[in-house]
């Protein structure tokens, strides 16, 4: 199973703590972490996963490491050369997505999760209300443990639904 963890590069210390805890919880369960491969919450999630001997994938915006250096905890870097368009790939690689904090790139990934029907768990992330769009599609949780448990549950439901 792969769970994508999304969030911003310029995050608070609390968001970084949560992202690292999410990564560690996923790693302990044998779930691979996918992220954008950069710093901030992405690096924290990868650090947490690797601390639990978990695996990490970084979907990077540039053509190579000189253009888009992955954080030091990305085990499998994927260079796309497509800039922020790589956000769709980050989302589609996961069986579910956990959003921790975040900025506009995270908001675009949230939109891609909605567009593509990828289950989405939110941990202190974007909140919005716009007519015709259901912001409640983000399953809100308050702890890293809840985020991981809910994301895995939703990913399993998605997989069993796809197998039918």
What does this structure look like?
This protein is of the alpha/beta class. It has a single domain (2-163), classed as Rossmann fold (3-Layer(aba) Sandwich), CATH 3.40.50.450. 41% of the residues lie in helices and 18% in strands. It has five helices and seven strands. The protein has helices at 13-28, 41-51, 86-93, 104-116, 144-163; strands at 2-6, 32-35, 56-60, 76-79, 96-100, 120-123, 139-141. A seven-stranded parallel β-sheet has the order 4-3-2-1-5-6-7, with helices on both faces. Helix 4 links the parallel strand 5 (96-100) and strand 6 (120-123). Helix 1 packs parallel to helix 2 (41-51).
Name of the top-level CATH class: Alpha Beta
Shape descriptor reads globular
* Termini Cα gap: 18 Å
Rg on CA atoms, Å: 14 Å
Question: Major sheet: order of its strands?
Answer: 4-3-2-1-5-6-7
| Mean of pLDDT | 94
Helix/strand order: EHEHEEHEHEEH
Which descriptors apply to this entry?
single chain, 164 residues, alpha/beta, Rossmann fold, globular
Question: Can you lay out the helices and strands and say which pair or pack?
Answer:
Blueprint: E1 2-6, H1 13-28, E2 32-35, H2 41-51, E3 56-60, E4 76-79, H3 86-93, E5 96-100, H4 104-116, E6 120-123, E7 139-141, H5 144-163
Parallel strand pairs: 1-2, 1-5, 2-3, 3-4, 5-6, 6-7
């Amino acid at each position: 199973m792969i769970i994508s963890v999304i969030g911003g590069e310029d995050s608070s210390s609390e968001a970084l703590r949560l992202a690292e805890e999410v990564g560690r919880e996923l790693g302990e369960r044998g779930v691979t972490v996918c992220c954008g491969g950069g710093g901030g919450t992405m690096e924290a999630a990868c650090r947490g996963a690797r601390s639990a001997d978990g695996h990490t994938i970084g979907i990077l915006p540039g053509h190579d490491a000189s253009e888009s250096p992955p954080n030091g905890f990305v085990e499998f870097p994927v260079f796309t050369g497509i800039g922020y368009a790589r956000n769709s790939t980050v989302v589609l690689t996961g069986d579910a997505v956990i959003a921790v904090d975040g900025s506009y790139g995270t908001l675009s990934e949230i939109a891609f999760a909605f567009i593509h029907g990828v289950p989405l768990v939110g941990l202190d992330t974007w909140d919005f209300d716009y007519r015709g769009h259901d912001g409640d599609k983000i399953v809100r949780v308050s702890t890293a443990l809840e985020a991981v448990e809910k994301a895995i549950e939703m990913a399993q439901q998605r997989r069993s639904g796809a197998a039918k």
